[in-house]
Specification:
six-stranded mixed sheet; Deoxyribonuclease I, Chain A; 5 helices; alpha+beta
């Protein structure tokens, strides 16, 4: 079966400079892309309803639930950063059942709250369980190295070697050190490297220069990979969205 995914750092539903709320446009855009699984970073899951709130007209619904609506019936949220007016983190939206999920705190220091959201999905009756890990790594390289180590150790401990795996999110890895470590330590492929020879430029969205957002996979066949830019670029997040399509094989019958 074919499975489509997208990953998007939505910048808490605001424009690049945090001047305006654009959550309606973000929702419409993601609904238009219509992936089976959506990895979201910087999702505001709790909020106040004060002046200028992103939620002024949304009846206080968390962003991931508002975006999911009836399009993605399964939703998981991992709270990372907590502050006076609310909290934000990573979220995964899925057309497939989410069997279980866990959010792991991988904050490297008190100035940045980061996490990885590990979800296990069931794409179909004869399909194997699909492990999806949504990450948002730190801005500082030393902290990212520790976070990559934590990600690798979690996968080694929690994901069977032959289980299909997708890792996606905002890696803030402009020097490509995390990219090399994940490929070497986990045997994953980065989907844009597989299709085009190098990761995609995604930041800043108005004039992308840095390859910060990634999709990695193991145990699935990469069919295609795409960058979804928003025009005009300053209307939405400071990141571009990425999409990929995979072919997932059914489980082989048990041998007697």
């Amino acid at each position: 079966m074919r499975i489509s995914v997208a990953t998007y750092n939505i910048h808490r539903g605001r424009t690049q400079l945090m001047r305006r709320a654009m959550i309606d446009d973000l929702r419409d855009r993601l609904h238009g892309l219509s992936p089976d699984i959506v990895f979201l970073q910087e999702v505001q899951g709790g909020h106040s309803r004060g002046p200028g709130s992103t939620y002024a007209n949304l009846a206080l619904k968390p962003q991931h639930e508002y975006i999911a609506d009836s399009k993605w019936r399964e939703v998981a949220y991992g709270k990372n950063a907590v502050y006076r007016d609310g909290h934000h983190g990573n979220a995964l939206l899925s057309c497939f059942p989410i069997l279980r999920h866990e959010n792991e705190d991988i904050s490297a220091h008190v100035f940045e709250s980061r996490g990885l959201l590990h979800c296990v999905l069931k794409p179909g009756p004869r399909m194997p369980e699909l492990h999806c890990i949504n990450v948002h790594l730190g801005l500082f390289e030393r902290g990212r190295q520790w976070q990559i180590h934590a990600l690798v150790e979690r996968i080694r401990a929690s994901v069977p070697r032959h289980a299909p795996l997708i890792i996606a999110g905002d890696f803030n890895d402009w020097r490509h050190k995390a990219n090399r470590a994940l490929i070497e330590d986990l045997g994953v492929c980065e989907v844009f490297e597989e299709v085009t020879g190098r990761p995609a430029r995604t930041f800043p969205s108005v004039l992308p220069m840095f390859r910060l957002d990634r999709i990695y996979a193991r145990g699935l066949k990469v069919v295609d990979a795409r960058v979804h830019y928003a025009y005009p670029g300053n209307r939405m997040s400071d990141h571009a969205a990425l999409g990929a399509t995979f072919e997932l094989s059914a489980r082989r019958p048990a041998q007697d």
